[in-house]
Amino acid sequence: MQNTSLFQLNVDANVAMTLKSAASWARALGVLGIIFGVLFIAMGFLTMSVPTTEFGDYESYEETNKMARSIGMIMFIGVGILYILGSVFALTFGGKATNALRSNNSEALRSSFASLRNYFAYWAVLMILGLLLMVISIAGTAIAT
Amino acid sequence: MDQNQNAPLFGLNIDPNSKSLLTEIAKWARFLAIVGFIVCGLVVIAGIVMAAAFNSVDNPYDDGSAFMAPSAGIGVAAIIMYILVALIYFFPTLYLYRFGVRMRNALASSDQNTFNDSLSNLKASFRFVGILVIIMISLWILGFVLGILTASSM
């Protein structure tokens, strides 16, 4: 019994089929996520290209408007880049897992698991940062009022 | 002849390195799912707070008549939208949680069925989010095209 896995878990027919399907969806999600991120970035640039409407002679309003749109553009582009980076991890996992199953390569399968771990870790860290920002902004609003 | 019934059909084993990676993956997935559940709850609370804020508009008339502020309708619409968003976000989070928990159990007990079950939940999570992203991109493109058509017709 020299082929028995030490931990008795292995990639049998069912697992291979499920993993292959998961990898396909991960690749699709990766590609879609990159498209989504690019659209976000495009939206950011569009924000700056929309012509402003002049409201009389108040220069300070014009300045505020410009600043607000700049911040909006930066946020859109930032979110787009962050989303693209996360999607790359999903795409990498999907590609490597598919190759590993096709070629029965354990090393490639391990590498795909590393990409999957990076994918979850990346989004978990982003979620924590997002929640922290939300808490800080709520606290700031509460203190200000 | 001694048939090795545990031999992998495709020659891929879950070796100690893979097991270590899968353990980490399960932890991160569970953590992400729990944070996701918290976010769902916060979204629902935000919807309730917003609805309450819209409904608290005072009656501008002093004649004691019953007053239904126009903003009350907006409040109802807001809470429905927020609950819908929370619901949409809940399902992939649930699949992710199930993946994390079952993967942990599968690795602990070396149970092949649970291992397969956990990967099914991972697939379901990716599929749900993938379809959601397709819908969002489609709506985005549709909105963009409608915007261009509207602008050009003016």
Report on this structure.
The complex is a heterodimer of chains A (145) and B (154). Chain A is mainly α and 145 residues long. Chain A has helices at 13-49, 59-103, 106-144. The N and C termini of chain A lie far apart (72 Å). Chain B has 154 residues and is mainly alpha-helical. Chain B has three helices and no strands. In chain B, helix 1 packs antiparallel against helix 2. Chain B is elongated. The model of chain B is unreliable at 1-9 (pLDDT under 50).
* Structural class computed from helices and strand pairing of chain B: mainly alpha
Residue ranges of chain A: pLDDT <50 for 5 or more in a row? Answer: 1-6
Average pLDDT score of chain B: 82
Average pLDDT reading of chain A: 83
Helix content of chain B: over 70%
Enumerate how many helices of chain B there are, as a single number: 3
Order of secondary-structure elements of chain B: HHH
CATH class of chain A: Mainly Alpha
How many strands appear in the DSSP assignment of chain B?
0
Distance between the termini of chain B: 83 Å
Helix-residue proportion of chain A: over 70%
Q: Low-confidence parts of chain B lasting 5 or more residues at pLDDT below 50?
A: 1-9
Terminal CA distance of chain A reads 72 Å
Radius of gyration of chain A from the CA trace? 23 Å
Global shape of chain A: elongated
Number of E-state strands of chain A: 0
How much of the sequence lies in strands of chain B comes to: under 5%
- What structural class do the secondary elements of chain A suggest? mainly alpha
- Named at the architecture level, the CATH assignment of chain A is Up-down Bundle
